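Study this fold:
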Amino acid sequence: MAIWSNNYHGSMNEKAFEFNSSIDADARLVYADIAGSIAHAKMLGKTEIIPREEADALVNELGKMNDELQDGDLTIDFSEEDIHSFLEAELTRRLGAIGKKVHTGRSRNDQVATALKLYSVSALEHLSSLTANVALALSEKAEQHLETIMPGYTHLQRAQPITFAHHLMAYTEMFLRDKSRLDDAKERVLHYMPLGSAALATTTLPLDRAFTAEALGFKDFSRNSLDGVSDRDHSLEMLADMSIIMVHISRLAEEVILWSSQEFGFVKIRDTFSSGSSIMPQKKNPDIAELLRGKSGRVFGDLMGVLTLMKGLPLAYNKDMQEEKELLFEAIDTVTFCLEILPAMLNDMDVIEEAMLTASQKGYLNATDCADYLVEKGIPFRDAYQITGNILKECEEQNLTLENFPLEMYKKHSDAFDETIYKKVDLKECVIRRNVAGGPAPERVKEHIEAVKTKLEDYQIIS
């Protein structure tokens, strides 16, 4: 029987009850709901809204239920309407009339909102830890390739020489920003506690909301009861943050897919993270990277689903909001899985340094360095740009590179050239000289890696 049932209500259609039920989705809120109920029961006893001994009995029994659920000695009854109904029914079965008092001064509306926030805090902490692990895994891989020359790209065209370490550390920065957003979101989740808002207009009972908020780790309680039960901004923010994480995962996965193709040949994905073809014996497909790329669409859809759900709802609570939990939970599960598998995939990825260097030697990636050489000789950059362009045209016509372009031919374009040009256009030297903060010089990238490791020294890579 639903906790809202009484003689005023007739029986609900069986299919309608099943349609209305949410316990399959919200069962994961069980520990958060118990924590909220314990704090609420303590407050009821403190304020003597119910006798202290009855409040103590509720707190003790809720604690036992928490332990039993963790140990597997208590199982959730999925025939109940939702997890909140199950817990109240179980308390009543154990404590009789005292169990029925746990819901004094609250509604499922503020109860659900509070449990969801408590669960979200835990999820955000876990996701933050996982993003830190990804950033560390990228840094560890980068540390192995401080001098591995590869082409840097713009417009997917070879542009300038960089190192593989520098490229990986760009993604490290992305995941560090993701971690920062998750940490910020957690602080906003804890800004205020909905509990005590009741259905929409608080209650006539003398609740001590400040006591409950402090007991649950909130900074304050909601200052408007309508907003308290109808606000889902924290879910939207989490979904937006997780969508950005999936953008970064998808971009990295896309590059791994490109790099592992025969056209690039920059990396090799081991069999641990690839699959074969059912018809072509030679095929090794980057399925895990492709799934990481593809899962982004699922999380984006969850965000759009909740945005669409919330955009037209009048105050205060509406049953539509029940759908929000499932979308949020699905996104959390998807992002968690992706973040867990990514470090292991990176660890099992072999880097083909020779292929990266060979690619860097094509496409005149050192052309800007040639122009900069002339600038250092006092030639205006725009003129240096034109001179270098003329040299490149001649290189292309004669199948030469800037490294083997004869000195007498250099001098034909400008008397400023001498034998020192060859060191200037050496690919490794091109990278080493980019010794600007944030640049690809091995010295700078090493500093970057060390700074990241120091920042994340409390984390350990999970592979």
User: Anything to note?
Assistant: The chain has a mean pLDDT of 95.
